[in-house]
Design goal:
This protein has about 280 residues and is mostly helical. The chain is globular and about 70 Å long.
Length: about 280
Amino acid sequence: MASSKRLRNPITTSRILLYITIIFVISYFFIPFLWMVITSLKSNAQVFTSPPVLIPKPIKFENYIEVFKKTMFGRYLLNTIILSIIIIIGTLFSNSLIAYGFSRIEWVGREAVFFILLLTLLLPTQVTLIPLFVTYKKLGIIGAGLKGYLPLILPYYFGNAYNTFLLRQFFINIPTELSEAAKIDGCSEFKIFYKIIIPLSKPALITVSLLTLINVWNSFLEPLVYLQDEKLYTVSLGLAQLQGKFVTQWNQVMAASTVTVIPILLVFLFAQKYFVEGVSITGIK
C-alpha cells in the first residue's frame, strides 16, 4: 500500500503542475484579448481610469457602430477578405506544384536548388522591399485603382520558401507506391499530382491556407507602400487610420481590433483539427 501511494503522489503532483502551467499559458494569451473586448465596450473616459474598470458601466455597443459610421472599416474588411482569398488560391497553386517537384520527381541538382530556396528565408521583407518596388515600377503595375493590388498578389503566385518546405515535408510522407501504381495505370505526373497527392494533403493545404491568411490579414508594410487609394486599404491600414493626430478614441480602436480578430478566430476554430495535423506532419494514417 505504501509503495502504491508513493507511485500515485508524483503523478498527482506532476499533473497539478501541468494544469497550472496550462492555465498560466492560456491566461497569458487570453487576458489581452479579454481586455481588448472589455475596453471596446467602455466609454473613452473609462479607458484610462485608475483603478481600471473591469465591467463597463454603461456597456457601449455603440462603439462598434461608430467604427463603421465614421470610417470605411466595412470596406477595409471586405477588401482584406477578397485579397486573402485571391492570395490563398495563388499560394496553394504555386507552392503545391513546386513542392511536388522537390519531393516526388527525381532530377539532377534537386537538393542543391532546394537548399538555395531555403536560404531565401534569411532575407527579411525590409531588405527585398525596395528592389521589388523598383521592379514593379518598371513593369508598370504600381498605381491607383485595382492595379495597386498586383504587387501584393503576384509574389504569392511564384512560390514561397516556407510554404514550399511545409508541403514538401508532407508530400515526402505519402508512400511512393501510390505514384508508382498510378504510373503503371498510365497516369501522367500532373494527373498523379491532382488526383492522388492533393486529395491526401488536405491537412497540409489547410495549414498553408491558415498561415497565409494570418500573414495577409496582419500585413501592414506592403499595403502601406503599394496602396495609393484609400478605398483599397486593408484592415491593418484601417486600424492605423483610427489613430488620430491629436486625440484617439481608444474604445473605438479596440472595437475595430475585436472585429478584425473575430474572422481569424472563427476560421481557426473550424480548421484547428487539420491545422494541428498539418503542422505535425503526420502523413497518411
